[in-house]
Design goal:
By secondary structure, the protein is an alpha+beta fold. It has two domains: 120 residues, no CATH class; 121 residues, Trna Endonuclease, Chain: A, domain 1 (3-Layer(aba) Sandwich). It is 36% helix and 26% strand. The strands form two sheets. A six-stranded antiparallel sheet has the order 1-2-3-4-6-5. A five-stranded mixed sheet has the order 7-8-9-10-11, sandwiched between helices. The two termini are 27 Å apart.
Amino acid sequence: MFEINKLIAEYTSWLNSKISVEKYGEVYEMTTPFLDRFNDYLQIYVIPEKSGELTLTDGGYIIDNLLSSGVSLKQGSKKLNKIYQIIKNFGLNLNGEKITVTAKESQFAQKKHSMVQAMLAIDELYETEPRAEKDFFSDDVKTYFDNNNIYYSDGVSFEGKSGSTATYDLLFQRNRNHPERLCNIVSRMTESSRNMMIFNWLDIAPVRKHDSMLIIILNDSIQEVQQRDIDALESYNITPALFSESEKLLALCN
């Protein structure tokens, strides 16, 4: 039997055990268990303000890495616009190259979680073999649904049991044949992005309808999807769907 409360407790315990903090002067450096594309742990800097609030920032690490890797972020470019959208979705700010947010102590856990999600999402904008901007995988998926008259809500956010917010690429409404279906579109699956999706689902599922589903659409056209990732998702009652298996995908989302 699927015991979500037990899974939530186990996953939260694991997550908390992997976080470490160092203090440098008045700044706290928090190392999270989530990895960037270089397999370095994501770090967030926490700065106490005189007002009693906290400023959280990545110190410019994520965007500086994109620029150093040759990613063009010219004003008006699709990738820069995508970054602005990610920042907006998670209620954060962009100060030059730094991702920042100010939070009360009671908001710390929620804002930290939003910061990590945004850092992972922006880091994934890098592609080893970049395609033309108009060919982003998420655009391909949405165009496919549009052409097949599959209706969805685009870019939705929900607050989970912990008070943290999770953002989903698509929402398919409940209908006669299917329950409510949340959906993430993943061009390149990493261990960290997979773990973040699992954590978010464990947090969101208890506050949604009992039969709500999470579908992860995976891009298997540029790399092979690993069976261990499929097994991990399925073990938490998440439904993986390969984009190449178009008929199965339509059946899930219609």
